[in-house]
Amino acid sequence: MRILIVEDEPKMASYLRKGLMEASFAVDISNDGNDGLFLALHEDYDLIVLDVMLPGLDGFEILKRLREKKRTPVLLLTARDAVEDKVAGLESGADDYLAKPFVYSEFLARIRAVLRRPTQSVDTVLRVGDMEIDLARRRVHRGSVRIDLTAQEFTLLKLLAERKGEVVTRAIVTSHVWDMNFDSDTNVVEVAVRRLRAKIDNPFEKKLLHTVRGMGYVMEDRP
Known about the structure:
Layout lengths: L1 E5 L3 H13 L3 E5 L2 H10 L4 E5 L7 H9 L6 E5 L4 H9 L4 E4 L4 H13 L8 E4 L2 E4 L4 E4 L2 E3 L3 H12 L7 H8 L10 H13 L8 E4 L3 E4 L4
Parallel strand pairs: 1-2, 1-3, 3-4, 4-5
Antiparallel strand pairs: 6-7, 7-8, 8-9, 10-11
Helix pairs in contact: 2-3, 6-8
GO molecular function: phosphorelay response regulator activity; transcription cis-regulatory region binding
Pfam families: Response_reg (PF00072), Trans_reg_C (PF00486)
Keywords: Cadmium, DNA-binding, Phosphoprotein, Plasmid, Transcription, Transcription regulation, Two-component regulatory system, Zinc
């Protein structure tokens, strides 16, 4: 699972990252509010650890803007323990709230508790044009035609469909489909996209998976 830590205290961020990595999480760090919001909106994380007092944008503003686009679980961290701050955070869409200083074992327990909760307001069926992707059953149809995909192909299709209308870069594909970074000279992404396209597009007149030259790929129903 991937976690983003938005925390402007380098020692605190490093301490939390080390502990989470030892607990088998993949962790990214941002020390600035604007950068943290960009990562939160443009990358896929299972949970965001968000400090309230940040340079650029504060945690409440980041949370507000994030909730306009995504439902990624958020654990707020702050040195402020006032009741009104807790209420403001929770009402803004935070999933939990932890005041500093805290014991790491409680921090980890709260993260695991948030991750165990059912995800709210998440569609179990994605649609792009005449294509329907049933996430629960892992089935794909275009019209009445069922399309059989490998596990890797399904993961790639899900990533592209969830970002319908957005350009998805090769770097994003490699980090989400294979959970690693490939050498830029390899063509593994192109091969994977070509195989997926052969199944979901080539047999059909209307094409849904498009290449944006020099940038990446976009899934959309174009006129």
